[in-house]
Inverse folding.
């Protein structure tokens, strides 16, 4: 039997508990509930209630109180606060519209950008158990330096498969382009070359026919089979029912279609239309790939084995990698390299760091704009709050609790934010559709291993994006609502009802003015940060455009093509063929000159090793250097507009049976012949035909920028196409007028010479350059746009602040005017406040941006993250705009009629 | 609201029907928790199924204790109770079985 409680003291506590519970209950029910509980408590005492019963009773009382409170809120919210808020907002439609629009645009833009970030960062690759998928990197490096990722060769891959146990289902993949013929016009298709293990590894299925299987393992015979994508089957085969089993011709090879892959799948690169087994490559295209451990051409994927940890797998793979050099002795020239291997999680491997950084930068920028807009609104609401203080005082004196007032003000802000957020969500939906894909593609969709970075078709408003919008809207609403609500809570209604406006006017440092100043400083600072980021991007874009490329990119038409080994076997000599193409192209009307070689920012790219040179005869294997090389036709350098520094360039006399010659770029010449004149001396290259005794240097040319303008210049060499032809080549044509107008003529000329050969990547150099600089231009444009939006908001905010200050100080200004103060001094009085705020804001902003812009590292070119000139320019621009925004209301202030002013309340 | 009543709610209504009148008494006779009883009483009052009124002041004064709040069924409440009890009976549950009458 539970003991009875000691009466009086416990009763006292219990009654106090009842009293505090009663405080929670809404006012009008408070005393009623209290009385009921008191009666019940008395009953409990009078009966044989135990301590346990008392505890339960008190719990019940608290539950009752909480329930009443919850009901009270529910009624109030539904009935009063939200509707009141909406009515209040409707009373000033201009303000409401402007606020809603600003909020909607910035919340909408943030949400749309976040969806892109979300798809890149948070979404998983569409394969089963993606967290166990890994990329196996082959690593090579010079001793004592960091190793770089390379690609795999078949022998090394086989050894890897046999030795490493903790990574299973290893598969190789490679992306190629091949020419499709006999199915409409010759076209170039993206082909993914895969080992049979790739489809099972990724869990990809076929919708018709079958995918590669055990039959496609290398077994001594070629497997000329192919799998096609849904879109290939649809657009090129017309969804023919007999597609499976039919033949398609790629690079003059006949492949039998054995299946159509599942709908929507486009390979690991996201672009593949056809898959062929790697054994086809090995057997037919380049047989040496099978045995030559140094003919490396593909990437390797795998899955962590059941029970294996990443660490254990890493060490196993690394151990294998370090033995590669011994197991597979390298060709002459690469002897000093060290080897290794490592695992990279698939998700991590499918990233494009520059693209990610750009997206985060844009997201940060748009949130900065949102913050500025929020601060703007907070300031505006503060000002309105002061005007409504009389209203608040009256309501307070009529019995509305302070808590009630604050809650109602917050509801107003949250309602405004909610409307803005809702409209913003609408904008975001449109924005994601219209701009999401464009943005993602301009910022970059490819990664280092040919893996797709982002699936632009999957951009959508999923729950994470929606949650982001919700949190943003709520945060914004609270942010600009708390300040005015706090202000309202602190006012003493009595003082108000007594003093009127004069009461607040006389205290210059009231809550209203101070907070507004702080908000203004914040806005200016954030605008400075945003504008400085925009100016850094602008400088980057300008710098990129100003780079001296070493050649003349105007009026240059470019393209690429590739002969196949089948062509060579059929007796076509590549060197002669390429020269024929040049002659045919040069004959087109409107063409100034034509040549073959590497297309800058296009390709093909070849590199070889300098084995020795007469300038530095003691070149040990450790000093072998890589050099970029390209076979060119005669007059190539002249056509490019490259500056010949000494000697001559490739001429028609340099033929397959004459002495091998080479033209060096300046950097290569200086490095290989530091103390002597290179002309006439020999160098040996690890390039077929250029080994011992090597080639004679006949000329030195100023370096040509063969990559992106922001890439470092490489050592380069030019050889004669007749002396060292390759199957593939680029073609460059200098035109008299618009290059792209000659594309049809170019294509038909090619068709005359070789009807089955497809020209790829045909575009003017200008178009090519534009594509390469698209990221920095898009960033400059968007950051600039956000910067201007920020500037506009700051100007509006400053105008409002000064106008408001003038209104508040009407009496004071009138007094001064009547005492003889001139216009200028009155203006100065008003301006001082506003511009003081601006200067402080600029100072804070400059300091802040020196820290913030470091996150743009990696996106900039030719400028450091802290750019004093840019900062100076931004500060001046901001100050000028601020001055203008402040000057107009200030002028109004100087025109105050003293008599009117003194009469105002 | 046409949501059907739950067991505890029906128990409380049944208790009121048997003449049990104030909160603690319901707690004792139904053996439900006070929290459940009080919040359900409020809900029932809001829905108009029961009616509450204060005890006669004289009686309370005479017995030197605070006035209790008494509850009783409204006609609507009586009807709801009947329907609910029938519903539970059909399921084989005797809702009001354990509730002793006031006395």
């Amino acid at each position: 039997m539970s003991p009875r409680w000691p009466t009086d003291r416990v009763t006292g506590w219990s009654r106090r508990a009842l009293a505090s519970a009663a405080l929670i209950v809404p006012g009008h029910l408070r005393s009623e509930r209290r009385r009921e509980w008191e009666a019940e408590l008395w009953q409990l005492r009078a009966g044989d209630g135990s301590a346990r019963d008392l505890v339960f009773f008190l719990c019940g009382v608290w539950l009752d109180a909480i329930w009443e409170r919850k009901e009270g809120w529910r009624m109030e919210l539904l009935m009063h606060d939200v509707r009141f808020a909406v009515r209040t907002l409707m009373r000033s439609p201009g303000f409401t519209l402007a606020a809603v629009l600003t909020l909607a645009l910035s919340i909408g833009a943030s949400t749309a950008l976040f969806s892109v970030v979300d798809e890149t960062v948070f979404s998983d690759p569409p394969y089963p158990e993606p967290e166990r998928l890994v990329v196996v990197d082959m690593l090579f490096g010079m001793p004592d330096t960091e190793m770089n990722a390379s690609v795999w060769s078949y022998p090394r891959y086989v050894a890897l498969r046999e030795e490493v146990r903790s990574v299973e289902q290893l598969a190789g993949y490679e992306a190629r382009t091949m020419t499709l013929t006999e199915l409409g016009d010759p076209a170039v298709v993206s082909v993914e070359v895969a080992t049979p293990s790739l489809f099972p590894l990724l869990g990809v299925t076929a919708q018709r026919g079958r995918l590669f299987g055990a039959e496609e393992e290398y077994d001594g015979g070629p497997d000329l089979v192919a799998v096609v994508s849904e879109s290939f089957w649809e657009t090129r085969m017309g969804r023919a029912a007999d597609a499976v089993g039919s033949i398609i011709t790629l690079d003059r090879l006949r492949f039998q279609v054995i299946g159509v892959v599942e709908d929507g799948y486009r390979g690991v690169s996201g672009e593949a239309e056809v898959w062929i087994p790697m054994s086809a490559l090995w057997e037919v295209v380049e047989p040496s790939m099978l045995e030559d451990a140094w003919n490396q051409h593909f990437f390797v994927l795998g899955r962590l084995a059941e029970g294996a940890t990443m660490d254990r797998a890493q060490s196993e793979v690394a151990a294998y990698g370090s033995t590669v050099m011994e197991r597979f002795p390298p060709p002459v020239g690469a002897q000093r390299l060290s080897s290794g291997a490592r695992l990279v999680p698939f998700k991590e491997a499918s990233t494009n760091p520059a693209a990610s950084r750009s997206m985060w930068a844009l997201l940060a920028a748009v949130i900065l704009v949102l913050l500025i807009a929020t601060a703007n609104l907070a300031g505006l609401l503060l000002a309105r709050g002061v005007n409504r203080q009389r209203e608040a005082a009256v309501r307070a004196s009529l019995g509305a609790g302070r808590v009630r007032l604050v809650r109602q003000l917050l509801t107003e802000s949250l309602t405004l934010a909610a409307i803005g957020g809702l409209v913003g969500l609408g904008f975001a939906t449109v924005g994601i559709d219209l701009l999401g894909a464009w943005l993602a593609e301009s910022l970059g969709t490819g990664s280092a291993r040919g893996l797709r970075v982002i699936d632009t078709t999957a951009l959508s408003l999923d729950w994470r994006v929606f949650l982001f919008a919700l949190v943003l809207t709520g945060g914004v609403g609270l942010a600009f609502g708390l300040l005015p609500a706090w202000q309202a809570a602190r006012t003493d209604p009595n003082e108000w009802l007594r003093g009127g406006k004069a009461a607040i006017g006389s205290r210059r440092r009231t809550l209203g003015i101070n907070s507004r100043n702080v908000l203004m400083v914040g806005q200016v600072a954030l605008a400075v940060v945003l504008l400085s980021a925009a100016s850094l991007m602008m400088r980057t874009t300008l710098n990129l455009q100003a780079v001296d490329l070493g050649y003349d990119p105007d009026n240059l038409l470019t393209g690429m093509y590739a002969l196949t080994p089948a062509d060579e076997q059929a007796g076509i000599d590549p060197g002669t063929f390429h020269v024929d193409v040049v002659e045919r192209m040069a004959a087109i009307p409107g063409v100034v000159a034509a040549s073959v070689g590497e297309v800058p920012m296009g390709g093909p790219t070849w590199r070889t090793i300098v084995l020795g040179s007469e300038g530095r005869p003691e070149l040990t294997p450790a000093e072998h250097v890589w050099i970029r090389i390209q076979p060119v036709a005669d007059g190539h350098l002249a056509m490019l507009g490259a500056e010949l520094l000494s000697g001559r360039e490739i001429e028609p006399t340099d033929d397959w049976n004459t002495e091998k010659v080479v033209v060096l770029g300046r950097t290569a010449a200086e490095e290989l012949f530091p103390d002597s004149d290179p002309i006439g001396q020999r160098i040996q290259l690890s390039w077929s035909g250029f080994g011992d005794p090597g080639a004679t240097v006949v000329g030195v040319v100023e370096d040509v920028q063969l990559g992106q303008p922001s890439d470092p210049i490489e050592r380069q060499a030019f050889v004669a196409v007749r002396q060292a032809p390759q199957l593939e080549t680029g073609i460059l044509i200098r035109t008299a007028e618009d290059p792209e107008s000659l594309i049809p003529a170019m294509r038909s000329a090619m068709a005359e010479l070789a009807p089955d050969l497809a020209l790829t990547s045909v575009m003017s150099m200008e178009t090519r350059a534009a594509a390469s600089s698209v990221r920095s231009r898009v960033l400059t444009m968007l950051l600039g746009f956000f910067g201007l939006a920020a500037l506009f908001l700051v100007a509006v905010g400053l105008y409002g602040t000064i106008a408001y200050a003038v209104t508040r100080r009407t009496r004071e200004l009138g007094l001064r005017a009547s005492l003889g103060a001139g216009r200028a001094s009155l203006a100065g009085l008003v301006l001082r406040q506003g511009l003081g705020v601006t200067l402080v804001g600029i100072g804070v902003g400059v300091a802040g941006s020196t820290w913030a812009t470091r996150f743009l590292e990696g996106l900039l070119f030719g400028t450091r993250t802290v750019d004093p000139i840019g900062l100076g320019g931004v500060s001046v621009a901001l100050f000028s705009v601020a001055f203008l925004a402040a000057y107009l209301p200030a002028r109004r202030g100087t025109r105050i009629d003293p008599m009117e002013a003194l009469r105002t309340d | 609201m046409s949501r059907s009543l739950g067991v505890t709610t029906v128990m409380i209504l049944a208790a009121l029907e048997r003449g049990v009148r104030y909160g603690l008494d319901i707690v004792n006779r139904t053996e439900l928790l006070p929290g459940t009883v009080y919040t359900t009483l409020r809900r029932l009052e809001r829905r108009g199924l029961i009616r509450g009124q204060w005890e006669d002041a004289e009686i309370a004064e005479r017995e030197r204790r605070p006035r209790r709040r008494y509850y009783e069924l409204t006609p609507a409440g009586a009807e709801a109770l009947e329907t609910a009890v029938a519903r539970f009976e059909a399921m084989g549950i005797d809702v009001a079985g354990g509730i002793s009458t006031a006395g």
